[in-house]
Amino acid sequence: MSHGSVELVWHLLQVLHEVMQSKASELRKLMDAGAQEWKEKYSIECERRRKLHNLVQELKGNIRVYCRVRPMTDAEAANGCCISFPAPDEIKINNPELGVTKSWQFNEIYRQNSKQEDLFSGIRDLVVSMLDGYNVCMFAYGQTGSGKTFSMQGSADNPGVYTRTFNELFKVAKERSAWKIELKGACVEIYNEEIRDLLLGPNDKKQKLQVRQGKEGNHVPGLTLQPVNTVAEVEQLLNTAQANRTVASTDMNLHSSRSHLAVQILGTMTNPEGKQFSSAITLVDLAGSERLAKSGVSGDRQKEAIKINQSLSALGDVIAARAQKNAHTPYRNSVLTHFLQDSLGGDSKTLMLLQINPCASHVEESMCSLTFGARVNAVEMKKS
């Protein structure tokens, strides 16, 4: 290449560089404008998806009732089964000795052969609702020994609602990479109408915990809230809570839970536009309802059973008041219902897992549970 050609190429490169510099500012403005436009469109679509998802959950019912029947042991099978399923969403009790035949319908019914993943498939969407800023609560209800703890906790090789919920929670949070999401965990038990912080060790200084009303809703001042960023960290909280939970042996269950266990994940979510949402998902393994004569408890165990039944009765009163659309809902009649107030009213999403023992010798307890479940199913949730 000749010297003149080299100079020409060099001159053209300089001209091109000057043109690019002169246009760089304009190009940056155009790119920034385009990015802002896409950011605004993304924000609009996120809000639209949030509203549509919430609408779907409302159409399914803000309080849903899922019924799960556990398998019988060989010893129970000798007494016969009192449960049948006339239709996919129908459960029936038939007991000739008592002259009882009655059917109930619920949102979902899981039979004796159902798997843990089957149950969670009907719960998964509620995790998204929590990250969208709605309070979510799921509580397992049923007589002592009906399988509540298995459904909620499961085992290492067959995890229950807790672990599956945590996995889904962090999975969805990770997918929302443009959001800022901060999560904290708490574990409490409600024992004899007292709130106990299960994340405190036996030698830790403990204060009396009470539910208080704040501008963001009910909360428990002084409760341990530990930041969690992984499923493993939440599992560690749960292991600590289980080690500190109150259990005892009764005639109905060798390891009967003597308190209500609540595992709560509280979240603060900020979308790309800076709009902030706060909400909580609360998973509750209720203490088992039991008849004193049948459980064979006495002394302290009897006092515990009485308190358990009173709190479950208070839960029934709250449900009944909402179903009848009473002007007053008696949340404060029990520490349990006061603690769950924000999850049982307003636009919260609540799911009741009704656990049933199908053995004929437990037909009366099963009937009471199914009747209670039907009352819950009748509640129409609206903003307070």
From TrEMBL:
Pfam families: Kinesin (PF00225). It comes from Cladocopium goreaui. The keyword Lipid metabolism does not apply. Keywords: ATP-binding, Motor protein, Nucleotide-binding. This is Kinesin motor domain-containing protein. ATP binds at residues 142-149. Residues 62-379 form the Kinesin motor domain. It comes from the Eukaryota. Belongs to the TRAFAC class myosin-kinesin ATPase superfamily. Kinesin family. GO terms for biological process: microtubule-based movement. GO terms for cellular component: microtubule cytoskeleton. One of its GO terms (molecular function) is microtubule motor activity.
